[in-house]
Amino acid sequence: MALEVNDNNFEEIVIKSDIPVMVDFWAEWCGPCRVIGPYIEEISKEFAGKAKVVKCDVDSCPGVAAKYGIRNIPTVLFFKNGAIADKQVGAVPKANFSSKLTALL
Question: Is 33 known to be catalytic?
């Protein structure tokens, strides 16, 4: 299951991670976010131990969302070694997310 991150633990879980991290910026009211939600959960299981998959609710984490300029959701950022390595905006097929994360392993 994808971890929930927030303004308080984002740096510890994402930035300081020694493995790649996929961060799904979403909101409860966002239709496209609900569409990709099951993909995010499946990817979190498929990449367990190789990469972290986390979710960040933009409504409850305004600091992180603002820091990374999240204006459209869903936005998925891919981090490696504490820096953004890739980005995907909008609802796309699961394979798009998986291939971007695989490229960082």
Answer: yes
